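Researcher: Here's a chain I'd like modeled. Treat it as a single chain, no partners, no ligands.
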Amino acid sequence: MQQITARLVDIKNKSVYPARVSFANGKITDIDKVDIDDSSLPYILPGFIDAHVHVESSMLVPAEFARLAVVHGTVGTVNDPHEIANVCGMAGVEFMIENGKTVPFKFNFGAPSCVPATVFETAGATLNADDVDKLLQRDEVKYLTEMMNFPGVLNNDPEVLAKIASAKKVSKPIDGHAPGLRGEAAGIYIAAGISTDHECFTAEEALDKLGYGMKILIREGSAAKNFDALVGLLHEHSDNMMFCSDDKHPDSLAAGHINELCARAVNYGIDVFKVLQAACINPVEHYKLDIGLLQVGDCADFILVSDLKKFEVAQTYIDGELVAENGVSKVKTMPSKIINNFTCTEKKPLDFAFKVASDFNGSMPVMEAIDGQLITNKLTVKMLPQDGEIKSDLENDILKIAVVNRYRDAPVAKGFIKNFGFTEGAIASSVAHDSHNIVVVGVDDESICRAVNLVIAEQGGVSCVQPRVVGDNTNSGNEMVLGLPVAGLMSDQDGYKVAEAYTAIDAMAKSLGSKLSAPFMTLSFMALLVIPHLKLSDLGLFDGDEFRIIG
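Model: Modeled as a single isolated chain. Structure tokens:
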């Protein structure tokens, strides 16, 4: 039997009082109020939960993700493994579940609903309705993951409806993904059984969906940041809101997690009990998670914090085991097997040339990246050819973007993008939602090709190339690559070392001239066709509003 005396935060009853919490064999056995007036006592409260996250985006296998997350008081996550499912199919989902079981952490995986996300790209695998049904039969699979194919829901696509029916059959929640969907269309989507959305980027959109009975997740990840737009809704809607990161790079995870959002929300002026309702209680109740809420008989999953403003975590307990203390994780690094699907071969600079007819003198559709958002603007820009090619226009910050099929050798898809800001070099990544082909942005074809080939040589990863200065014999150029051998998405190495390596390559990318807060994370979403307005897949330029390939 273990005991902890602390100021207990009773979230549901909105009270704080000194208490002695007793626990044994992973369960809370007693909670007794004590007559102690000691302001030095820490606060004890349920652990934090990330209500929607793709662990793969941390570039860490689940066990290493957990190792970093527990330091910040996170005891569990609601995981969508559709990134690895798009690469490796059912074997990828199984890998995530089994790897997560190797550490003391409450991973809760779902059955991916959209693999591939669309038919307008090449993925490494397909999960059909029968596959999804089999996954949902498993007790450890808690929900149907984000239904990105909202046109399929609205148009009664039989395959989409079959997946939804499988979730309803076993009474498991269905996550949503419907950026910008409003009004009657949103009502139809929600009435189909879709229960959450993490894609709202305005309060008006979130209120519209809340009005139809949907739960709204406040997302603050490494690329998409909607906290400021949505946090004010917690004043009136805390019972129907949760916090999530969606996608979080390793350096960002090493720095903080849901605890940071709690601190920001309290600083914003939100009542602390409403903040903790969203951070701790709502995910457990909505997804029916086996995570304790600091009640007698619950799993002993809780944290100790020094105050209810900064939420600096002193200790994290999961099933009664101390897994982190004063910023140090007690979760051990575990060996990980390698699973992958990567077969393309090296490219040549000529593969990236954007050739046009000699009489071409027209306008080009150009993507515009937006810092902190997944959506892109769709621009029409006059671009003049040079020697039969259209090249990057540095003066107007319009660079070449390309997507290389990683599953087989195929022609390279090319386009142009604004707002990356590079004045030299290129960056490339095999983390390219959702099919995870290789996406690259750069100034010149040589740098673009070299960045892609660095990724291919590692069978997946992120790379950065700073070219040699022509005519300068003392400058041999510079390049860096972080290998991600697990599905081309994750490292099998120590999470803190991966975070350091990512910090270094991120700094190098910014040194090329980018003002984006997370260049690699932004790049990873430039092939995500289900987010408007203009994206690039390995099959060509895609108009998200018309939902078709346009070039």
